[in-house]
Design a protein that fits this description.
Elements: E1 4-7, E2 10-13, E3 18-24, E4 33-39, E5 46-51, E6 58-60, E7 68-73, E8 78-83, E9 92-99, E10 111-112, E11 116-121
Parallel strand pairs: 2-11
Antiparallel strand pairs: 1-3, 3-8, 4-5, 4-9, 5-6, 7-8, 9-10, 9-11
């Protein structure tokens, strides 16, 4: 069982920035592809961004491309999501997820964090 803990959520005005972090104590963290998902009220959870276990490949949802950047620090067992130019429609609970598949999966991740709320005011 991989335990993931998200942090960095909060309230920000439209156009602002937030940086989310996901930490794990899993010793094999570097072997997992990592992803960020979000779920807004009344909507299904959706893929936001993902990064391969090596960090060499990333993939973004069209809605966040050019505004969000995913990165990982395997020495610190963390994965980050830098969110710039935030919009009210980015408001959601953001979840970190881990998966052992090769590449950058966009769904069906094995392990999930508890989520962190991001609220963007207009």
């Amino acid at each position: 069982q991989v335990h993931l803990v998200e942090s960095g959520g909060g309230l920000v005005q439209a156009g602002g920035s937030l940086r989310l972090s996901c930490a794990s104590s899993e010793r094999t963290f570097g072997r997992y592809a990592m992803g960020w998902f979000r779920q807004a009220p009344g909507k299904e959870r959706e893929f936001v961004a993902g990064i391969s276990w090596s960090g060499g490949s990333t993939y973004y949802a069209d809605s966040v491309k050019g505004r969000f950047t995913i990165s990982r620090d395997s020495a610190k067992n963390t994965v980050n999501l830098q969110m710039n130019s935030l919009k009210p429609e980015d408001t959601a609970v953001y979840y970190c997820a881990a998966d052992r598949r090769v590449g950058v999966p966009t769904d069906s991740y094995e392990y999930w964090g508890q989520g962190t709320q991001v609220t963007v005011s207009s």
